Amino acid sequence: MLLILLAITFAGPYLPFVDRELSKITYILNEDKKPVIPPYPPSEDYLFGTDKSGRDLLSLIILGAKETILLVACITVLRYGLAIPLSFLAHKKWMGTHLFLKWLNGLLSYIPTIIIVMLLAMLPPFLLTEYRPLSLLLIIGLAEMPRAAEMIKLEFDQISSKEYIYGGIAAGASPSRLFRTYYLPFLFSKLLVYMVTDLGKVMFLLGQLGFVGIFISQDLVQSMGGDWQLVNNSISWPMMLMKAFEDIRGPIWIPFFPAFAMTCAILTFNIFAQGLKSFFTRKVRYI
User: Fold this and answer.
1) What CA–CA distances, in Å, run from 160 to 80, 156, 179, 184?
2) Bridge-partner residues for 220, per DSSP?
3) What is the reported pTM?
4) How far apart are CA 162 and CA 167, in angstroms?
5) Which of 16, 92, 165, 184 is the most exposed place for a label (fewest CB within 10 A)?
6) Taking Cα atoms as reference points, which of 108, 110, 139 lies closest to residue 126?
């Protein structure tokens, strides 16, 4: 499944049936020569149907795969890039970071992640800034960072009782050298499993945000009537769910196929994480 996902992501746009221009169709003539406007349901011409602009939905999903996967990967790397050093400092109880992490993790555990992201994303400083995509990436990455940091801290606590750690301390290794040479190599396998598992969680969160109309690649523009609107400028999968509540009563194929693609991706990440976990467990037993 992972190979299929990667093939669709990177080689899919070059398939002959993919409309890389994402051509829009104003109308087509039916058998009675009467114009019919999009969206069009799945058919031989459009396997997944079209969206309301007449763009082929299958092409949209294939072309949007790279942007979606890259966004998920960036958020996950950002989350763990911050969580790993924070968890090490908390493990060392440096300047009360262990108390700060415990407080932060406890505070955020009472609030669903999607609520945190929605509240922060709609605050004027984040809503009106020209760096909105970057700020939203940071918000989504930070939203579950304390959970990841607490999880990694427990691993640091467990490893610190090993004899080779005592050996490193006795040899006079500095904290930074202990971190790089003694902790990280033995935590690598678990960190990799955690990160792959989080890919699925991030994808699920982006899907939830798509349903409520919040996503990273949006611009705030003023309409002719003077009101402000968030305008979609992305073809990533969650953005196709923006009007799911309207589409579910009509062209249900528009939210169905992106949601199906996201579900397959989440399953792929979870299965891959379980496979990695089993592989590393067998490797440790063999050693």
Assistant:
1) 20, 6, 11, 12
2) 230
3) 0.86
4) 9
5) 16
6) 139
- Alpha helix stretches (DSSP H) within the chain: 2-10, 57-91, 97-109, 113-121, 124-127, 132-143, 145-159, 163-170, 175-177, 184-211, 244-247, 253-286
Phi, psi of 72 (to 5 degrees): -60, -45
Q: 266 near 237, Cβ under 8 Å?
A: no
b/e for 228-249, b at 16 or more Cβ within 10 A? eebeeebbbbbbbbbbbeebee
Output phi, psi for 56, to 5 deg: -65, 120
* CB-neighbour burial class of residue 34 (10 A; exposed 0-12, middle 13-18, buried 19+): exposed
3 state DSSP class of 249? coil
Q: What is the 3-state secondary structure (H, E, C) of 181-195?
A: HHHHHHHHHHHHHHH
d(CA 198, CA 109): 16
* pLDDT tens figures, 149-173: 999 999 888 888 888 888 888 887 7
CA 270: distance to chain centroid? 13
The helix-helix angle for 57-91 and 97-109 (nearest 10°) equals: 140
Strand-pairing partners, residue 228, are 222
CB atoms within 10 A of CB 164: 11
